[in-house]
């Protein structure tokens, strides 16, 4: 049944923004399914530059799993053929945010993680152990990038589906390394500092688990955030306080691989395989030690079910037609076929 709740405005204490929950705009939560969008490449295209045997068509390779493999690789990390930032430019000096416009060189790294050698295979099709290997590939690349003093922040993200920003249908994710700390990360750290100063606790460690918990594993929980910006948004959070994703070890990667796959499969089954984005929100690389107690990394999964309009662009407030408590019920009840 449709929710009988009244409209609410909730504060997202992690990102320091307000979200309007408007059930008057909602159908039943279970009706929020993605509309099928024909992909012109999905049926006709069986091979592309990311496929095994086409390695010569790609930008230079950085590394692969297994490292000694030739044609039987499982994961490749390569340079982006059309990078947003250039690794060939000189790194800018330390950037101080003053009052006026600032321009620096477009230095940075933009890499691609090819998650499978086979064109039709998506992340949800991989066994959990190989999803874990994808996570460990992220970690290995971040470890390489954080050795550079000029890199201040690394963003790992995945775009699935053309309307979510994926230009290639072959399953892949991306890593961008920046000489600056981007505003969303800065705002998140500041917001979490304010919460810590008021309570003495990490805001993400304190996230409610009862009616917002979707699933859990040995080292992680998956929740719908209390002030979810988007319908059916999911966060996967380390149970134990951890500031940086790159501190992930093999045991935790294996555990996270299972839970990440489970969340993506549940979302796909219940919402008709929607386009989605996921982002790994980690602390800046050169974070001050005093900021570690309130910096807690997490994965944010956002199915693309609504369109951002003028109100959101004008105010920075978002309208979400699905209360997270209702989204949790829908996601919990998904039966995973054997």
Automatic annotation (TrEMBL):
<dbReference type="InterPro" id="IPR005849">
    <property type="entry name" value="GalP_Utransf_N"/>
</dbReference>
<dbReference type="InterPro" id="IPR053177">
    <property type="entry name" value="ADP-glucose_phosphorylase"/>
</dbReference>
<keyword id="KW-0808">Transferase</keyword>
<keyword id="KW-0548">Nucleotidyltransferase</keyword>
<keyword id="KW-0119">Carbohydrate metabolism</keyword>
<feature type="domain" description="Galactose-1-phosphate uridyl transferase N-terminal">
    <location>
        <begin position="8"/>
        <end position="182"/>
    </location>
</feature>
<dbReference type="Pfam" id="PF01087">
    <property type="entry name" value="GalP_UDP_transf"/>
</dbReference>
<dbReference type="InterPro" id="IPR036265">
    <property type="entry name" value="HIT-like_sf"/>
</dbReference>
<protein>
    <recommendedName>
        <fullName>Galactose-1-phosphate uridyl transferase N-terminal domain-containing protein</fullName>
    </recommendedName>
</protein>
<dbReference type="InterPro" id="IPR001937">
    <property type="entry name" value="GalP_UDPtransf1"/>
</dbReference>
């Amino acid at each position: 049944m449709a929710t009988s709740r009244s409209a609410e405005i909730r504060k997202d204490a992690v990102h320091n923004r307000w979200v309007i929950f408007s059930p008057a705009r909602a159908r039943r939560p279970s009706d929020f399914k993605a509309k099928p969008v024909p992909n012109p490449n999905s049926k006709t295209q069986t091979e592309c530059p990311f496929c095994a045997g086409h390695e010569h068509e790609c930008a230079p390779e950085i590394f692969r799993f297994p490292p000694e493999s030739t044609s039987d690789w499982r994961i490749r990390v390569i340079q982006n053929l059309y990078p947003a930032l250039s690794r060939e430019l000189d790194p800018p000096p330390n950037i101080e945010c003053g009052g006026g416009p600032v321009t620096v060189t477009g230095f940075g790294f933009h890499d691609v993680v090819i998650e499978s050698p086979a064109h039709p295979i998506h992340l949800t099709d991989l066994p959990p152990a190989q999803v874990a290997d994808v996570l460990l590939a992220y970690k290995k690349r971040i470890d390489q990038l954080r050795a550079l003093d000029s890199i201040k922040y690394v963003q790992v993200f995945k775009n699935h589906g053309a309307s979510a920003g994926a230009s290639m249908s072959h399953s892949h994710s991306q890593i961008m390394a920046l000489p600056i700390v981007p505003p969303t990360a800065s705002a998140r750290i500041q917001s979490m500092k304010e919460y810590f100063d008021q309570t003495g606790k990490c805001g993400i460690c304190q996230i409610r688990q009862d009616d917002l918990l979707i699933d859990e594993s040995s080292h992680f929980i998956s929740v719908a955030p209390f002030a979810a910006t988007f319908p059916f948004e999911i966060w996967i959070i380390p149970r134990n306080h951890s500031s940086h994703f790159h501190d992930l070890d093999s045991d935790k990667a294996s555990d996270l691989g299972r839970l990440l796959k489970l969340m993506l499969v549940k979302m796909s089954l219940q919402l008709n395989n929607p386009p989605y984005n996921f982002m790994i929100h980690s602390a800046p690389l050169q974070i001050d030690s005093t900021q570690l107690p309130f910096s807690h990394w997490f994965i944010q999964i956002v199915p693309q079910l609504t369109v951002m309009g003028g109100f959101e662009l004008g105010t920075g407030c978002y309208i979400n037609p699905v209360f997270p408590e209702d989204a949790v019920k829908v996601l919990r009840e998904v039966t995973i076929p054997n």
